[in-house]
Amino acid sequence: MKTFVPKSLATVACAVALFAAPQFTTRALDQWETTYIAANPDSSIVDFATHAGSTVVGSQLVWEARSGYRYTTLVSSSDGGTTWIESQSVAGEYWRVSISDSGEVYLGSVAGQVIRSGDFGHTWREVWNLPGGGGFNTLHDLEAGSGGTVFAAVDIKPAWMLVAGVPDPSAASGMTWAVVDTYQPEVKTVTEPQCILVDRRAGVGGADVIYVGGWQNHSKQGYSWVLRKSADGGNNWFTASIYQLVPGATTGGISTLAKTPDGTLYAAGRLVTSVIKNKGSTTHIASSLIRRSTDGGLSWTTVVQTSRKVFGLAVSANGGVFASYGDSVEVSSNKGASWDASDIVSPAYGNSLVADGLGHIHHGGQTLLNSGAWTGLIRTLPSSFTE
User: 3-class SS at 148?
Assistant: First the structure.
């Protein structure tokens, strides 16, 4: 186990950005601090999760170029990013991380293997393996709900499925898993889930409200954004919204979801804005969108359309919305009506954003070292600048 305490916090000095009152005060772009740089080169922070408000856990992938060996470590902080603790490594590439109410950490691989640790990465136990994983069957997201339930978004072409695991001491793995939702509206439609958002105990009788975002593709209609929703912990599901993209589009869908304390939902993903056909060739013009819903996902308003890719969304306790574009972060204090630069992290590449219960925002990814290697990076915006 390693503890990382930065000797000097690297910052990026840039021009002053003004944020709209009353939620934000005037601040400079250089308030973000580099709070973690991985000791191992060829590594990257790919996902975040939070527990009990203050604890943040990141999943870090590490590649060893000579051997081709790939493994995952956890990096965790319970003091707002002042110190980060690295766990022992586990073999394999685990792109998704989530934490249960009781503090158990779950990691999920694209091939569909889910492992669990009750001691923040010192020991691991396999709790599920997606049948046929690694081929056409893929795990896209993993999110813990209340009461020890864990949800996995998988696609078993041509349908998407949401699978729920619950604690079961009698099972060999300690958990029992079952499909709670299958989405394929018609035979000719291919669907794929991309992200899960669980609003714990916010539904009927204190049940979890679960959102699953992704896409569907009909051979004649092209791609559409799709949001599935359950307000009773996953027992009953409905399609909250479908956003039809340009006919003939070859890509699109919701890739990340976030929710503010007042219940406003934000969704981000790719969109083909036009299809140009000329002399037998076809060109697809793609953009990224950030969309907002104030009625639980039933209707949406587009607040951002950009040629840049949105990698992650996070919200602060007062409803500020942060968006990662990989090499920069932007923030809106007025529900997406306007956006201001919050951080510039070049030469770096961000994958994930998260807000902790202490009021800090953490941006994880990788940075380029003088040696030419890319290594894991976390930058943190202190709570004094998100209040």
Answer: helix
Residues 182 and 173: their CA atoms lie apart, in Å, by 24
Q: Which domains does the chain have, with CATH numbers?
A: 2-385 (2.130.10.10)
Q: How far apart are CA 370 and CA 31, in angstroms?
A: 24
CA distance 284 to 271: 10
Rg of the chain over CA atoms, in angstroms?
A: 20
Question: d(Cα 212, Cα 193) in Å, to the nearest integer?
Answer: 7
Contact status, residue 54 vs residue 69, Cβ threshold 8 Å: no
- In tens, the pLDDT along 128-175 reads 998 876 666 899 999 999 999 999 999 887 889 999 999 999 999 999
> pTM for this structure?
0.88
Token readout for 73 is: 């470590």
Strand partners, 358: none
DSSP 204: G
- Please enumerate in sequence order all residues whose Cβ is within 8 A of that of 359, keeping only pairs 6 or more positions apart, or say none: 80, 316, 317, 382, 383, 386, 387
Q: Enter the tokens of residue 145.
A: 């709900």
- What is the amino acid identity at position 153? A
